[in-house]
TrEMBL record:
Protein name, entry field: N(6)-L-threonylcarbamoyladenine synthase
Catalytic activity: L-threonylcarbamoyladenylate + adenosine(37) in tRNA = N(6)-L-threonylcarbamoyladenosine(37) in tRNA + AMP + H(+)
Catalytic class of the enzyme: transferase
UniProt KW tRNA processing keyword: yes
Keywords per UniProt: Acyltransferase, Metal-binding, Transferase, tRNA processing
The enzyme's E.C. designation: 2.3.1.234
Record domain Gcp-like: where: 1-218
Parts forming coiled coils: none
InterPro entries hit by this protein: ATPase_NBD, Gcp-like_dom, KAE1/TsaD
SUPFAM superfamilies recorded: Actin-like ATPase domain (SSF53067)
Length: 269
């Protein structure tokens, strides 16, 4: 996650601090990057990540059987089919609408989608594993609700940062990174938020959004420059299966109970 957050500095002149939204198959989090190893965690996923949700929905829709999608990942298939779908046909509830923090939850949304798929299979008289006639509309509604959830939590994070002077007044920046950041619809949703709040949006090219060696190497360059975390070969190293990113202040964000002003998210396909 640290490498994902810093990759954009390899490509664009960007100084600390900046806000970062990291979205992938295994993670979703909002953090203020104050230094190479200095992060304030504003929010994180409470269950599954957005990329995982999109992949599971794609599998449940059997998109591997779709002639346009058999070579694509689940998220890529959802994005492709959504372009020709009606996102308004199915109204999924945006997760955590009454929870005033910056954390994410996608498991409940996936359950909504699964229930709809079962209903449509019954209506069309087909078994699980058969492509539904409304698959494009389900893909569009799924992608839109994921984008809406990400946008709303990011909007609150921006307002929290402004209220607490966590970002520079001159050219504040939101970095969108991680595998799901390559989704153009989600990028457009975040662009609406940044334009409304006066931030600049930076996204690495799609080839640098997924896990890759370049981002890890750049992370090493950043640390080496600062002499940060560089160990001689004779020092014992302990391994942790999971390492937290920075200092978790998500409880402070929740306690602030920031209400979101209305923003029209008219996202073009």
């Amino acid at each position: 996650m640290e490498a994902h957050a810093l990759t954009v500095r390899m490509l664009s002149p960007l100084t600390f601090p900046f806000l970062v939204l990291l979205v992938s198959g295994g993670h979703s989090l909002l953090a203020v990057a104050r230094g190479v190893r200095d992060f304030l965690l504003l929010g994180h996923t409470l269950d599954e990540a957005p990329g995982d949700t999109l992949d599971k929905v794609a599998r449940r829709l059997s998109l591997r059987k779709h002639p346009q999608c058999f070579t694509l990942s689940g998220g890529q298939a959802i994005e492709l089919l959504a372009k020709d779908g009606d996102r308004k046909r199915f109204g999924f509830r945006t997760p955590m609408g009454q929870t005033p923090d910056c954390c994410f939850s996608f498991a409940g949304l996936r359950n909504q989608i699964t229930m709809l798929i079962k209903k449509k299979e019954a209506e069309e008289g087909v078994e699980e594993g058969t492509l539904l006639s409304c698959v494009n509309d389900i893909a569009a509604a799924t992608q839109h609700t994921v984008a809406l959830h990400l946008a709303k939590r990011t909007h609150r994070a921006v307002l929290f940062c402004k209220a607490n002077d966590l970002l520079p007044s001159d050219n504040p920046t939101l970095v969108l990174s991680g595998g799901v950041a390559s989704n153009q619809y989600i990028r457009k949703a975040l662009m609406i938020i940044t334009e409304a709040t006066g931030l600049r949006l930076l996204c690495p090219p799609a080839k640098f959004c997924t896990d890759n060696g370049v981002m890890i190497a750049w992370n090493g360059v950043e640390r080496l420059r600062e002499g940060n975390g560089i160990l001689p070969p004779d020092v014992d190293v302990s391994y942790e299966p999971k390492a937290p990113l920075g200092v978790d202040i998500s409880a402070e964000v929740r306690a602030a109970a920031i209400r979101l002003p209305s923003i029209q998210l008219k996202i073009p396909n």
